[in-house]
Write a structure and sequence with these properties.
Oligomer: heterotrimer
CATH architecture of the largest domain in chain C: 3-Layer(aba) Sandwich
CATH class of the largest domain in chain C: Alpha Beta
Number of strands of chain C: 23
CATH topology of the largest domain in chain C: Bifunctional carbon monoxide dehydrogenase/acetyl-coa synthase(codh/acs), Chain M, domain 5
Radius of gyration of chain A: 19 Å
Helix content of chain C: 25-40%
Distance between the termini of chain C: 66 Å
Largest interface: A-B, 56 and 58 residues
Shape of chain A: globular
Strand order of the largest sheet of chain A: 8-7-6-5-4-3-10-9
Distance between the termini of chain A: 22 Å
Number of helices of chain C: 23
Structural class of chain C: alpha/beta
CATH architecture of chain A: Alpha-Beta Barrel
CATH superfamily of the largest domain in chain C: Bifunctional carbon monoxide dehydrogenase/acetyl-coa synthase(codh/acs), Chain M, domain 5
Structural class of chain A: alpha/beta
Strand content of chain C: 5-15%
Chains: A alpha/beta (325), B alpha/beta (442), C alpha/beta (760)
Strand content of chain A: 5-15%
CATH superfamily of chain A: Dihydropteroate synthase-like
Number of domains of chain C: 4
Radius of gyration of chain C: 33 Å
Number of strands of chain A: 10
Shape of chain C: elongated
Number of domains of chain A: 1
Chain lengths: 325, 442, 760
């Protein structure tokens, strides 16, 4: 009994964005990472192209973080005081990309200086051949000061700099344009706000293929359903041809999941929550896997075990390509 | 083109008899147009109308209900591909697999643990839905004994799977007035399974690795008079499973292709399979093993994905004490929209500052939305303060309003004499700063 | 362009290109074609030449084709008797001038004539010249010359991200040293970068500032390029490099570089003192970049806008500027420059003696805490905002006419009028009421001040506390000035506030205000759907109902009741990428049901393909969808051949057998359900309310709260519909909660639906 499978022929597609630059392209990376390019919804190989698999980034800090779960500190304990070693360990753990999140203060509690930020970024670039994303501490003025210094000191590397938000994007975009980097545009779980920020950034003259968008997500149990639907809607809009939604999506399930009580707290919790470490890793893994189903192109994780599992899943999702060719 | 509610209304008896469960024929017609009810709910509809309404007559994915003594698990009746288009209705049932090869005592103790498993998420009790028994020894009596062992500790619904339909009889006979799911029927054994399903009024799972095969099988089985079917598309890997599930859902909804208009079931061993099955269209999940640390996040994921986007998850209104507050510590007010609550509670918790967090009943809306809708006003806040008995509990009466509703401060002061009303930050992230700078707590 | 200017610019250009050619010839003879030429510390060669022509000049002989190129751009000087189009010619000559000027400066570098020497002078930060700056050479005093790449990047980022609003190229000399200092200070105050060059009869603004002890250099955002006109070329080299660095443009993309500057670099030329041929030629060059020229002498103006964002050349003879003294004149001159280039100045702080912020919006000032009140029961208070021509509004001017409240006894009252004049290039009369309504929010933000009402029923209280802290009437003006600039800077360029307590004047203005209110009411009433060619979309609610499409027309406000057509129009002008976008109506498909090609197209896009068509005026066919925040639900009652209207505030049972909250499930979610519709309550009063289905006469049942709160308005609607008793014929929840009761009621009250044709 022949059945005609309804196939969607979408007029639009996701843009491809390449992170990192090889020596021949003016950078120092040993490999570059290209994301995006999808012409259909996630992994529907039977009706469109998924030319680039989603990738996994590992988030590291420029120093031992003050507020991370003890489980994470344990997982990275040998390298946590040295961002270069940490980056190398992250690469060994299977990361496709490194995210270096700069801290507000250095290990002595003094405000991080632009020189320190540059030194740490350079050290990380020296320790790994992977493309790099650099995030400011999240306070507009500090972000701008540190990121401008980093951007100028790494001209041509095609780093992704973040976070651009509607209240603070111009400086980061300006320095990215001047030095050949990309930016990450983050908006709080809303399709129209995401579009608007993308318009504002591209209005400044940064080409769309230099922007990654972070639609923001909540962790499992903490609003993931909002992030999930916003991502599905953004991807549908992109495929329907809405230019300002056609950017690859980066999301931070690691940050979100490890903020949740389920991951942070080991004692005094219900027995039904089960073993702490397994639960915490499951929390991060499940959050990430869910977002990949919604169209995430880059997921930023924190625990090496989650990285392993998410990568394995991506491989299996991509493997189906051969079944339809 | 699908008929509108008004067009359908014209074909209905227009008596407003209410027997369908809706107050008027028009309301019923609108639900029918939205494919949320079956035409058969109307006892008086004419044959002529039926014929005209055929397309709107039944939901495109049949509702299947597994039943046992005191329990029900529903799947099907879905109307959209993406939850944001309307909502996903019936949360996929989570069933844990038990094998007939296991020792009876083991089965009993595991089944008991599974039965008792219960975890609280924002005031909702989440539980496992039932058991899937696998005939891995191919022995009817073992199968029967395993089922008996389960029934000695739990009445939750069951699924029974065997490659040999003839093995199922003894097990099924001991089920009293239940609707279990049995299977899986394949091209080789479907007739026997169909007979079995008919005899025991069971729902039947139909398995194949191709959609064409599934469609052929369901048509044949339907021809035998069995209509409560569940599809089991057997993908070769994770990506293939996603494609099959997507194609089945599309055929049912977009092409209104009846032969696959049934809910699906996914056998899951990896976490990725479980996540995907919940997000992408499975009506039932059979989990390989039972582990608390995985079940909890899975149950939460299912709850999240199946939340109606129009009806946000709510937390229990009331007083939440964070970081062991004293009677002199401030009272923070917010609404019972889960995300609002979580942002505030998490921020306060991680800041280390003590607070009495007063969560008001704002019908699950965020602060600004609730304010705009009149569900978060001075009167309601004052009522919540009194309901939580704060007048007595708190010695230093300071009430902090969310910054977004600064406009309420005057009215709240008027409603709550003796309270110092402060306006807090607009965003939860700024709460620690507010404690430090405005409340001058260190 | 003025013929006079064109003639002089063309003449100046011809002379300069000729001069450059001769200089180059001699330099090649003397130094050889291989002699290196470069500006200090830049990777962009001679930046203007590099950007405009793509030629990377490294040696003297590389300049030969540049001069050839400049020569080709030259045009002959227009004959006295002949009128030819000369804008293009003048602009071409301007460009030739710039190329020649940069070539000349480069050659001067070769001869050690640049940077210009200025014995005894030290830069407060500047481009470094090791051979001049080193102590071993005795530290030769010099001006800055071109800006280096490091500084370009630092300032470029600030120009791009908006921290620095723009730059001023000041050429010549001011009327006096005092005026020179004032001009620079005014610009610095606004964070505008100053590039200094040129002279008048040998005296340069650089001399003037040095004499007055003003520090010049990178550190003070005031860069002395050189005392001749040619060094002004460094400003355009800076502009060119900005485009190459931050615009992602390549050398040789002349047009794109010029456009980039026009659109994004807010710069202008301020010509002080007499303007000679060379200055005219250079000015023509600057106009190529979209930089307008403002002169403080009498020159012909070129006002029609086109190449530059606004005017091209503006003459503001210094002595004719209105002002008490030269300093005030200088201030106005700077103000004009900013206006002409459209530089937006940000005001972040509200300068009042009490705390200010949205946290104080809800404060109530009780009678016992009150120092004084305006309006309310015992006095009159009104507020009136109107737009005026740019030149008639003095930005920041705040006047209090009449006595302050000191003489009023505690807890007393007095009359007050707040008159606000606004001006702006993007301002429209239609925005007046939108802006006027903001006064309420703005004033409420001050701690200890309470504002209620609007128009001539405004009511303001000042608390004792605020009065003790020194809150005066003028502070209302300060608040309004600051907030209009910060919140509505996109449409408002100037704000002037007058607070009136003087009784006679107050009466005069009150009369004017009332006339304006009447006019606006009438305007609103006259503003019908067929008088406009665009409606507005509103996507604010799409976060709740992703596929919901709100289309707002003059006669159909948003279903939330919060946004009408004018609000949307203003919102779009303030935030062009925001949630309200114009929908061009296109062709009318059906004027009765309300279909246009434009609205249908938008319905498809806005709903992401879910909704295909929207009928603006029908509930029966493709009605507008709803999110969930509607004020009322309108639903067909098929048995009654009419519709009912349920208010959000009405919890009781309706004849549809459902309460509001149950109905909301049917109406909301962005789904199109014929027979049900969510609306804003004022839409009920519109002549377009379900006009395709029979209009307001179809209403058979309506929540009593609507009847009560809109009694006056509904009465008028009844009259308009030709049935003055219509409202009494409409049932409500006090009498009717079932269909059966409804049908009886309709019979008893002889409701018009009984004789109307069937709805479907």
């Amino acid at each position: 009994m022949p059945v005609e499978i309804p196939k969607e022929k979408w007029p639009g597609s996701v843009l491809t964005v390449t992170l990192g630059a090889l020596p021949s392209e003016g950078g120092t990376r040993k490999r570059v990472v290209t994301v995006g390019g999808e012409t259909t919804l996630p992994f529907l190989h039977f009706e469109g192209e998924i030319p680039n698999p989603p990738v996994v980034a590992i988030e590291i800090k420029d120093r031992k973080p003050d507020d991370w779960s003890p489980l994470l500190l344990e997982a990275w304990k040998d390298v946590i005081d040295d961002p270069a070693q940490w980056a190398a360990a992250a690469e060994a753990a299977g990361a496709d990309l490194i995210v270096l999140a700069l801290s507000l203060t250095n290990r002595n509690g003094e405000p991080t200086t632009p020189e320190e930020a540059v030194a740490n970024v350079k050290a990380v670039l020296g320790a790994t051949g992977l493309p790099l994303i650099v995030l400011g501490p999240g306070q507009a003025e500090v972000d701008n000061t540190l990121l401008v210094a980093v951007s100028e000191a790494t001209k041509g590397e095609r780093l992704a700099l973040g976070i651009c938000e509607d209240k603070n994007y111009r400086t980061i975009v300006a320095t990215a344009m001047a030095n050949g980097h990309l930016v990450i545009a983050r908006t709080p779980m809303d399709v129209n706000l995401a579009k608007q920020l993308n318009i504002l950034i591209s209005d400044m003259g940064l080409p769309l293929n230099c922007i990654l968008m972070d639609p923001t997500t909540g962790a499992l149990g903490y609003g993931i359903e909002y992030g999930y639907s916003v991502m599905e809607r953004l991807r549908l809009a992109a495929l329907q041809g809405d230019k300002m939604t056609q950017l690859p999506m980066i999301v931070t399930p690691g940050f979100e999941a490890w903020k949740a009580k389920e991951s942070k707290v080991g004692e005094g919790v219900p027995k039904a929550w089960g073993d702490w470490l397994s639960r915490a890793i499951n929390w991060e893994t499940l959050t990430a896997l869910t977002l990949i189903e919604a169209g995430a192109d880059i997921v930023v994780l924190r625990h090496p075990e989650s990285v392993k599992r998410v990568k394995a899943a991506i491989e299996e999702l991509m493997a189906a390509k051969t079944l339809v060719s | 083109m699908a008929l509108t509610g008004i067009q359908i209304y014209k074909l209905l008896p227009q008596t407003n008899c209410k027997e369908c469960g809706f107050p008027t024929c028009l309301a019923f017609a609108m639900k029918l147009a939205a494919k949320q009810v079956e035409l058969s709910a109307c006892p008086y509809v004419s044959e002529e109308a039926k014929a005209q309404l055929e397309e709107s007559a039944a939901p495109p994915i049949r509702l299947i209900t597994l039943k046992s003594n005191g329990y029900e698990v529903k799947a099907g009746n879905e109307v959209v591909m993406f939850r944001h288009e309307k909502t996903f209705y019936n949360k996929p049932g989570l069933f844990v697999k038990l094998q007939s090869s296991a020792l009876e005592e083991e089965v009993k103790s595991l089944a008991k643990r599974i039965h008792d498993y219960c975890v609280n998420y924002v005031g909702i009790e989440l539980q496992v839905d039932g058991f899937a028994v696998e005939d891995d020894t191919h022995q009817p009596d073992k199968l029967k004994a395993t089922l008996a062992a389960i029934r000695s500790v739990s009445n939750k619904p069951v699924m029974i799977f065997s490659d040999y339909p003839e093995n199922l009889g003894p097990a099924l006979e001991q089920l009293d007035n239940e609707v279990p799911l049995i299977g899986c029927a394949t091209s080789d054994n479907w007739e026997k399974f169909a007979d079995l399903a008919k005899r025991f009024k069971a729902a039947l799972a139909v398995k194949a690795d191709q959609i064409e095969t599934l469609a052929e099988l369901t048509e044949k089985i339907k021809g035998k008079g069995v209509e409560d079917l569940v599809l089991v598309p057997m993908g070769k890997n994770l990506g293939h499973e996603l494609m099959l599930q997507t194609q089945l859902r599309r055929l049912a909804l977009k092409a209104n292709y009846r032969p696959v208009g049934y809910p699906t079931l996914a056998f899951c061993s990896s976490q990725a399979q479980m996540v995907q099955a919940i997000a992408k269209y499975a009506g039932f999940l059979v989990l390989d093993a039972f582990a608390e640390d995985l079940l909890y996040p899975l149950l939460v994921l299912r709850q999240n994905i199946y939340t109606d986007p129009q009806k946000p998850i709510q937390v229990q209104p009331g007083l939440y004490e964070i970081n062991n507050p004293q009677p002199t510590d401030p009272v923070l007010v917010t609404t019972n929209f889960s995300i609002t609550y979580f942002s505030v509670a998490n921020e306060v918790e991680s800041s280390g500052y003590p607070a009495h967090l007063l969560v008001t009943d704002a019908e699950g809306m965020s602060v600004l939305t609730a304010w705009a809708a009149g569900k978060f006003d001075a009167e309601r806040i004052a009522k919540a303060v009194r309901a939580a008995n704060l007048e007595e509990k708190i010695t230093r009466k300071r009430l902090v309003l969310p910054g977004a509703v600064a406009v309420l401060s005057g009215e709240v002061e008027a409603e709550l004499p003796g309270w110092e009303v402060r306006v807090g930050p607009r965003e939860a992230v700024d709460i620690p700063k507010f404690y430090k700078q405005v409340l001058q707590v260190n | 362009m003025s013929r006079y200017i064109a003639t002089r610019a063309i003449r100046g250009a011809n002379a300069l290109v000729r001069e450059a050619e001769l200089m180059l010839k001699r330099a090649i003879q003397e130094k050889g074609g291989n002699q290196k030429v470069a500006f200090p510390n830049t990777a962009y060669y001679l930046p203007l030449i590099y950007g405009m022509t793509g030629i990377a000049v490294e040696k003297l002989e590389d300049l030969v084709p540049v001069i050839e190129h400049a020569k080709r751009l030259l045009h002959p000087i227009p004959a006295e008797s002949q009128w030819t189009p000369y804008l293009g010619e003048a602009l071409d000559c301007g460009m030739a001038t710039l190329l020649a000027a940069e070539a000349i400066e480069a050659i001067r570098f070769v001869y050690g004539l640049q940077p210009e020497r200025m014995p005894g002078f030290t830069l407060a930060g500047g481009t470094s010249y090791p051979e001049l700056d080193s102590p071993s050479n005795g530290r030769v005093g010099h001006l800055n010359g071109p800006i280096d790449d490091i500084q370009l990047r630092a300032w470029g980022i600030q120009l791009v991200d908006g921290r620095m609003p723009g730059f001023a190229a000041i050429i010549g000399a001011a009327k006096s040293n005092e005026v020179a200092v004032k001009i620079v200070r005014e610009l610095q105050k606004r964070n505008i970068l100053c590039f200094l060059s040129g002279n008048v009869n040998g005296r340069s603004i650089i001399h003037q500032l040095i004499e007055e002890g003003v520090e010049l250099g990178y550190d003070t955002y005031t860069v002395p390029f050189g005392t001749d006109t040619l060094s002004a070329i460094y400003a355009l080299g800076f502009a060119t490099r900005s485009a190459l660095t931050f615009g992602g443009l390549k050398a040789g993309q002349a047009r794109e570089i010029l456009l980039y500057n026009r659109e994004r670099v807010f710069a202008f030329v301020l010509a002080l003192g007499e303007v000679d041929d060379l200055k005219y030629a250079a000015a023509a060059g600057a106009i190529n970049f979209g930089f307008p020229v403002i002169a403080d002498t009498v020159i012909p103006q070129i006002l029609p806008t086109g190449i530059t964002k606004y005017e091209h050349v503006v003459s503001m003879p210094f002595n004719e500027i209105e002002g008490a003294d030269d300093l005030e004149r200088a201030e106005r001159l700077v103000q004009k420059c900013i206006e002409v280039r459209g530089v937006k100045v940000k005001i972040t702080e509200v300068d009042v003696p009490v705390p200010y912020g949205s946290a104080f919006e809800g404060e109530v000032v009780r009678k016992s805490d009150m120092r004084v009140e305006f309006g309310g029961k015992y006095s009159r208070c009104f507020e009136y905002l109107f737009m005026a021509p740019l030149e008639e509004v003095v930005d920041g001017k705040i006047e209090v006419i009449g006595p302050s409240y000191e003489h009023v006894e505690p807890q007393g009252h007095m009359d007050m009028g707040i008159v606000v004049r606004v001006a702006g290039r993007n301002m429209q009369e239609d925005f007046e009421p939108v802006l006027e309504r903001q006064i309420h929010y703005f004033i409420n933000g001050a701690s200890g001040i309470q504002h209620i009402g609007q128009r001539d029923i405004a009511w303001i209280r000042i608390s004792k506390n605020a009065a003790d802290k020194g809150f005066k009437l003028e502070h209302f003006g300060k608040i309004l000035h600051a907030r209009y600039h910060s919140d509505f800077g996109a449409i408002v360029d100037k704000v002037q506030v007058t607070i009136i307590t003087e009784p006679e004047l107050l009466q005069q203005w009150l009369a004017k205000a009332r006339a304006a209110y009447d006019y606006r009411n009438k305007r609103l009433a006259d503003l019908t759907d067929d008088k406009v060619d665009e409606f507005y979309s509103c996507t604010l609610c799409q976060s709740f109902a992703p596929n919901h499409v709100c289309i707002i027309s003059p006669e159909r406000l948003g279903l939330c009741g919060a946004y009408n057509w004018l609000d949307c129009k203003a919102s779009y002008n303030i935030n062009p990428t925001g949630p309200n976008q114009p929908i061009k109506l296109g062709k009318v498909i059906d004027p009765v049901k309300g279909y246009w090609t434009g609205t249908n197209e938008y319905a498809k896009i806005g709903s992401h393909g879910v909704v295909q068509e929207v009928a603006m005026y029908s509930i029966m066919e493709n009605p507008m969808t709803a999110c969930g925040c509607f004020e009322c639900i309108v639903m067909l009652i098929p048995e009654a051949n009419g519709v009912m209207v349920v208010s959000r505030e009405d919890p009781s049972m309706t004849p549809a057998g459902m309460t509001f909250s149950t109905l909301a499930g049917l109406a909301g979610g962005g789904l199109q359900t014929p027979g049900v519709m969510g609306v804003g309550k004022y839409f009920l009063l519109s002549p377009k309310f379900i006009s395709a289905d029979g209009g307001f006469k179809r209403v058979v049942w309506m929540s009593s709260i609507l009847k009560e709160t809109m009694a006056e308005e509904l009465k008028k609607v009844a009259e308009r519909e030709g049935d003055p008793d219509l409202i009494e014929k409409i049932a409500d929840e006090r009498y009717v909660t079932t269909v059966e009761e409804l049908l009886t009621w309709l019979q008893e009250h002889n409701h018009p639906v009984l004789t109307m044709e069937p709805m479907f």
